[in-house]
Amino acid sequence: MYTILDFCNAVLDFGIFGTAFVLCMELVSCYHRVSANIILNLFCCTGYVLLGAVGIWIHDWKWVLRFLYGSGTLLFFYYW
Fold this sequence. Notes:
By secondary structure, the chain is mostly helical. Helices cover 88% and strands 0% of the residues.
């Protein structure tokens, strides 16, 4: 189960970041693309830092995965 969820995380994470990057660059004027890229990457890095913080508070990796995928599942149903 861990391998399947980890594979889905890698596939979906790349797809979400790539799509967000392209949309961000298309919506921003040419003069502000560098700063928009920096801001987008700062949010991505902040998310990974928060993942480390969740890992510190929740010691069992199964509960960390349930917490992370559970919150993502809620956002998936919000989209529908």
